[in-house]
């Protein structure tokens, strides 16, 4: 049987009014809800009469009442999306503050357990765009191919800068006045790619040609440390504020370091290359044993190592150090090239952020649980 449009519309309004009443029952005044119920009943009676005029009249009396307790919004989809976006931000901030925090490995002090930025020069130009895109998504690899424009030019400065407003990199200043933006930090350009002030280049010669793997990105577990505290042999992240031997960041703010937690309060440590001793016994935890193995890129634990800096603790096989209360002793897995507690002292308990939990990108052999 054919149902006129005005009847379908009226019935839909009855259902909608019921939903509004239920949705707003804890917000609207009881007298408002009672008045709406009365007008809904009037509309239902008009629908039974099948009179177009009565249905229209009942609708015109009901709609203003509904609008008073649940105003009609012409942009409800936009509003709902904005609300969803705000809720997502609040949840993300809450998760970051109390549970998980993303972290980028800044240096090579934990290699080969975790990689910082690794850069290499190339003799040939970078591959095509398709290959570069795939390698970036899977390996976190970016390519640079900076060619000298002037007839003869010389590097006069290399400064840290944001590339494209968000990417940490460098600006290379030349004697000619030309500048080149590179998505690689000055330290990596200097120590891994051999670039330095005073180098000269002729026109068409590559100043920087190579790639940089951006380093492991991982989640830091803050929740378990808040509940259960730290554990020896954990890979842990901490703030550097208050640690005298560590310079603050460029804006004088605290930096974040990641190391392996080698000593908890009252532990006595000693290094006899390549072994680490804790309280007079050789360290037995997996992370320590792997470093001591001197296999697969691990150096073993080392005493004084030229070129890293002035070692404060454990500089020779007879040196020992006892960790004071509310402090921790941190060692890098790349012991021969790690500026850690041997050089700048103890990590205050209040500086601990959390445990390195899971490498989520890039998708290399390090992807997965951190050990």
Structural overview:
The chain is of the alpha+beta class and 371 residues long. It folds into 3 domains: 5-69, Substrate Binding Domain Of Dnak, Chain:A, Domain 2 (Up-down Bundle); 118-213, no CATH class; 217-369, Umud Fragment, subunit A (Ribbon). The protein is 31% helix and 27% strand. It is built from 9 helices and 19 strands. The protein has helices spanning 5-23, 30-49, 52-69, 76-98, 129-139, 186-191, 223-228, 286-292, 341-344; strands at residues 100-104, 118-121, 141-147, 152-163, 167-174, 179-182, 200-202, 206-213, 217-221, 235-239, 256-263, 268-272, 275-278, 281-282, 321-322, 327-331, 347-348, 352-361, 368-369. Strands 1, 9, 10, 11, 16, 17, 18 and 19 form an 8-stranded antiparallel sheet that branches. Strand 4 (152-163) and strand 5 (167-174) form a beta hairpin. Helix 1 (5-23) runs antiparallel to helix 2 (30-49), helix 1 runs parallel beside helix 3 (52-69) and helix 2 (30-49) runs antiparallel to helix 3 (52-69). It is elongated, with a radius of gyration of 33 Å. The model has no long low-confidence stretch (mean pLDDT 85).
Q: What are the key terms here?
A:
371 residues, Substrate Binding Domain Of Dnak, Chain:A, Domain 2, 19 strands, 27% strand, Umud Fragment, subunit A, alpha+beta, 3 domains
The overall average pLDDT, rounded, is 85
Round the Cα radius of gyration to an integer and report it. Answer: 33 Å
Q: Roughly what percent helix?
A: 25-40%
**How many domains?**
3
* H/E series: HHHHEEHEEEEHEEEHEEEEEHEEHEEE
The number of distinct β-strands equals 19
Largest sheet properties: 8 strands, antiparallel
Mind telling me the CATH class of the largest domain?
Mainly Beta
* Percentage of residues in DSSP E strands: 25-35%
CATH topology of the largest domain: Umud Fragment, subunit A
Give me the oligomer status.
Answer: single chain
Number of helices: 9
